[in-house]
Amino acid sequence: MLRPTTLAIGVTTATLALTLAGCGVESGREASTSKETKCPWTPDKSVTTSARIAYQKIPNADLVVKDLSVLKACMPNAKIKYSNFASGGDVVQAYGSKSVDIGLMGSSPATIALSEPLNLPVSVVWIHDVIGTAESLVVRDKSVNDLKGLKGKTIAVPFGSTAHFSLLQALQDDDMDQAKDVKLINLEPEKMAAAWQGKQIDAAWVWDPVLSELKKTGQVVLSSEDTAEAGKPTYDLGTASNDFVQKNPAFMKQWAKAQDYGVKMLTDDPEKASESIAVELGVSPEDAQKLFEGYEYLPAAQQADQDHLGKKMSEDLFATSKFLFGQGSIDKVAAPTVYADGVDAGPAEEAAK
Q1: For a 10 Å CB count at each end of the chain, is N or C smaller?
Q2: What's the topology of domain 135-229?
Q3: Cα–Cα distance between 305 and 256 in angstroms, integer?
């Protein structure tokens, strides 16, 4: 069942709107299936860590790892609890209330977490995916072919998400005022279908599986691939509490190896990976596999290089912070070292060995 998080993060800027209730669906067992999985390498029975993991229903290796119970198979004496969150903003709140240890969030929420006024002690430790067409702006009126065609219309987006960041960037690039030219409303993905059917919204920038549902009666006019080409890439990132990482290096090594295993399955055996993704998303394996086309999945060795977690990620987070500050989404742009210190390539490096 859904449970509200009572933490008030204290962000005063209206654009961010992280005052919405953070919520997670508790999962008592790690896998959503009855499959028994053997660890792909020698299990580490010495790990007795208790870990609280926040996940989102996004088609990447994190769902494969969860569905196949890879962590439990490789750390049989660890205690692992998964909780499902609707958006990265909710995961940020969970970190603020110290109710999660590891969590998936987009690059925009990760930047917000590291910036003032939050300054949360978390680090980016993994790139779950590079977002492309998987996050897109879909419009209900098929006569609309670009963003300018939505002047005076209502656009739904989860505030503080990577989709929100991409939408704001697209509006800026088109010289459109987010307050005057369009009406932006903060809406979680699971609520968008009803608002769409009730004609309460004219467009939405969102990800699958909701995106695919809206596309049945609408059409895509922009995507996060477009904003990436304009110089503002977005990612789904694996983050972790700094305290948890420091105290549990063996767990983090196994966690990263499991994620790398999932990435290799997605790239080398997408048909098998689609079975796990299908279970988690509630779609057919065929439909699940189609979703992979909207993302880029990176193996551990590539993640650890200078073009990713080694250096570029901190530069992208810093660039994102400057944009978010200009939009009023954070109180201040921190020094570049804050974002550099907020990226830890260690787990990826260990997984690549």
Answers
A1: N
A2: D-Maltodextrin-Binding Protein; domain 2 (3.40.190)
A3: 15
